[in-house]
Amino acid sequence: MKKTSGKKIIFVVIKYAVVLLITISMVVPFIWMLSASFKTNLEVFEFPIRWIPETIHFENYTNVWDVANYPRMFLNTVKLTVIITVLQILTSTLAAYAFSKIYFPERNVLFLTYLATLMVPYQVVMIPQFSIIRQMGLTNTHLALIMIQAFTPMGVFLIKQFFDGIPDELIEAARIDGLSEFGIYSKMMLPLSKSAIVSLAILTITATWNDFLAPLIYISDKNLYTIQLGLRNLCSEYTTEYGQIMAASVMSVIPIFILYCFCQRFFEEGMVSGAVKG
Amino acid sequence: MEKTTLQKRSAAIIRRNRKKAYLFLLPNFLGFFVFTLIPVITALVYSLTDYDGNNRMNFVGLKNFLQLFSDSSFVFSLQNTLIYTIVTVPLIILLSLLVSVLMNNGVKGAPIYRAIMLFPHIASIVAVTVVWQFLYNAKSGPINQILQTFGVDNPPAWLSNQKTALIAVMIMIVWKGIGYYMIIYLAGLRGIPADQYEAATVDGANAWEKLRYVTIPNLRPVTFYATIMCIINSFQVFTPIYVMTKGGPGRATSVLVLKIYEDAFVNYKFGYASAEAMILFLLILIVTLIQFYHNKKMEA
Amino acid sequence: MKKKLVSILMASLMAFSLAACGGGDDKDKDSSGKTTLRLALWDYDVDKDMYDPIIEAFEKENQDIEIEIVSSPNADYETKLTTMLSGGDDIDVFFAKSNTALPGLQAKGYCMNLSNLLEENKFDTSSYGTVLEQQMTFDDNVYALPFRTNDWVLFYNKNLFDKAGIAYPTDQMTWQDVGKLAKEVTEKSADGVYGYSFQPKVGFIFPMLAGTMDGFDITTSDLSCTTTALDWILDMQESGAMEEYSESVSMNKDQTYFYNGEWAMMWNGSWFVQSLNLQENLGFEWGIVKSPYWEGTEKNGFVTSTPLCINASTKHAEEAYKFLTFSCGEEGASLLAKSNLVPGYMNDTVLDSYKENVGLDESSLNALMDNTTYSFGEPNNVFSEIISAGQKEMELVLTGNETPEDFVKNFTEQRKELIDNAE
């Protein structure tokens, strides 16, 4: 162990202070939410804040569970999230490979087209998109949500940025070794860009899980509701049931949080393999 | 970036490449074409018409665009959007860079902090906004209660004060955004080759110099990506404002997309709303191009 | 070569999208030959008790028609409705959020012109009173029928008045009287009780402004008369007789606080009778008096209605017409009256059914009858935009960001801008 200088100690103190401060500010609203979800409406705004409620009002949860048909919404959302994420990753990585590693004359124009559509606000696209979906007879189906969310240009852009960081020489060498383009894509690019793919997966999962505008527009049948649409409905119908609204909010974030905790290991792995690219 | 060797190849190779490229592109492009590109082009056409969703649409040329600037609500929303972007983007980028560099420097319990910091980003915006709305409550909200115990006698009314409403929204967005960009930066930091730091150490560089001359230049592509995404996201901010304030009080937190939304869905002026969207599109395009060329110049 | 490839690609894309389009078969008629009518409305779960009896009765009477409900959250109803109507979804019948939203929908051609159908079927529209003429008729043509009408009246909590030892409100008070009364009640009641409250949403407060002048028209009238109302609200907030608007809003407050016994008086539409009757264990008696009016104006109250429209591009006009005239006709009205709501269609039978089921005392019932009304004025193509701009400006006054004089100045400017830009 080296002798630590005074300067270093100050740095370490500042480092921990900043990190802890930010961490605390990130977590406090959620703890407040969690604690409020077990309180009666009157207790929610008590001050000083009683972080652990005197009596646990678990009925907030059971009420929400019954009223909103939570298990159904949960299954719907999971199904959508999985399908959309798989499709998104598969098609984005394929397209990104073409944009990043195959030279063809229109690629810049095409890629710019992709980029450009990213910049158009969704609210204007909504109406024409709805007409298309309706003409396909897909309104009020999950397939509508899958179609409009699985091919976003965002994913292509993200993966392409990562692919660009992988040296072209590597690809050239593989080509000379006689590997097919698909072979290069599946045997080299995908393993090399695990971290990017995991990032995209997490991005897509959270976006799909949390989206409420698209489900609002396309889904009418209660049996097809997603969790966010259900939450929004509940907020609209029970505006002053503060405890229940908080309980519903907790229930809408818990699954994705658990998934994230579980995925953190994959995240670490992804980063290690990402480091290889240098 | 193109390899000159590639460019010199014969037309036959280009043809073969093109075929391969299109095969790779096809699955994504099909979906993209039908569900994104066609709607976008349709919206573009709408912007030159008086389309109202139902009646026959008439071509009106640039009338919608000319009208924009005599529409005080539009000018107001444009201003708010610019303020919002100019304040939130640098804050998010700088804070997430700071946190990621510190975390990368070796912090005990880093995975836990990281998980916590990313939580706001992954939590549903509807849920998060509902919580913040209560936190911001002027009289009985926790934020003001805490401020009062610290001796602030007249804490701001946050969401109901014309002057603080936008600030309140921005605080929430920064809070929500840091985690994601921190993760992006951390991924970038792990990708910086260790030998560059070693070389810098040999040259006698201190921590600040390593950050300035090794870390930040190496992070340029990441910063490029993060800034563009962040700017695009803040130009397009909608859901938090829609859920939290609906643009109020008055028009204090009305941003462009909210105005577009209102014109399209409440006033049925699709043509006009599309014209507003095109302005937004242009703004984003300009920013992206500046960034793009700046980045290219730095690389060259 | 390049062109060829691109064109092949394009052609295959077109083929793909066309093929996919072809898949869009209607499932209008199921195997039993029933026609499905799609009905758009909001917050179905809250209003189940109102809709279900009507729909059940209709389906019983028309075995070949089935009603499918498309519900969305209250706050998102406009988004959903607009997308469905302009995206060409097969909505057959839909509710407009309120009569102020109707002119916009009508102007865009979403509502079917009902005049001919009504005439052909010799449907008697006299039972709708003046509402049909004032709010559903454009250029002498009828575009909607009023499902419900709502007289705006003053609800009060009798227990709070008893406890404070103050006499109940009476019919035909001025707003100034109400203000005085509210302050008294507040003073003599426990902490946390407010003498008066609005439903804290701009849409529920704004109508009060239109009552400050006889014959008010929001498109043309001089707006300076509205300061009376705004000053009144500010005075109420300052004196503590009414909770600050910003506080109520950030707590999402609504009628629940009247149920909780925290608001002694509340100006609200007559639908509130139903909501109050549905509350179990309310724990207090309540009453209704006629709407207050402003000193120096006629004794008018405000009236709103909920229009029911047929989508102009429906494929089931006949069935939709059946449903429309059923729900807005005598049968629907009687059922609606049974659930304590005031139907747009009103005759002796319906009125008796209402009186019988509503459980109101004589004087409260009287408050709901024979009211004269005011409105926002003549509907036009920027009507709802003007109202919405006014509501936003008013919000700034309520939250202490602007003075009533600022309101008059700014709202007048914005109104001019909206009218100019519409030309």
Automatic annotation (TrEMBL), chain A:
Q: Which UniProt keywords apply?
A: Cell membrane, Membrane, Transmembrane, Transmembrane helix, Transport
| Highest taxon above the source species | Bacteria
Record membrane topology: Multi-pass membrane protein
Under InterPro entries, the record lists: MetI-like, MetI-like_sf
The protein's matches in Gene3D superfamilies, at most eight in alphabetical order, are given as: MetI-like (1.10.3720.10)
The compartments listed are: Cell membrane
Give the residue spans that cross the bilayer: 12-34, 80-99, 111-130, 142-159, 196-219, 242-263
Where would I find the ABC transmembrane type-1 domain in this sequence? 74-263
Family matches, as Pfam families: BPD_transp_1
Family (UniProt): Belongs to the binding-protein-dependent transport system permease family.
What's this protein's name? Answer: Carbohydrate ABC transporter permease
TrEMBL record, chain B:
Q: What is the lineage of its organism?
A: Bacteria, Bacillati, Bacillota, Clostridia, Lachnospirales
Keyword Cell membrane appears in the UniProt entry:
yes
Alphabetized, the UniProt keywords read: Cell membrane, Membrane, Transmembrane, Transmembrane helix, Transport
Membership in a protein family: Belongs to the binding-protein-dependent transport system permease family.
Please state every residue range assigned to the domain named ABC transmembrane type-1.
78-291
Recorded hits in Pfam families, A to Z, give: BPD_transp_1
Its protein name is: Sugar ABC transporter permease
Any idea where this protein resides? Cell membrane
Q: How does it sit in the membrane?
A: Multi-pass membrane protein
PROSITE patterns xref list: ABC_TM1 (PS50928)
For the keyword Transmembrane, the answer is yes
From the record, give the transmembrane residue ranges. 21-48, 82-103, 115-135, 165-187, 222-243, 270-293
Automatic annotation (TrEMBL), chain C:
Which residue positions does the secretion signal occupy? Answer: 1-19
Q: Which domain of life is it from?
A: Bacteria
| Pfam families with a match to the protein in the record | SBP_bac_1
Q: Which InterPro entries match?
A: Bact_solute-bd_prot1 (IPR050490), SBP (IPR006059)
> Has the keyword Glycosyltransferase been applied to this entry?
no
Q: Which keywords are on file for this protein?
A: Signal
Q: What's the name of the protein?
A: Sugar ABC transporter substrate-binding protein
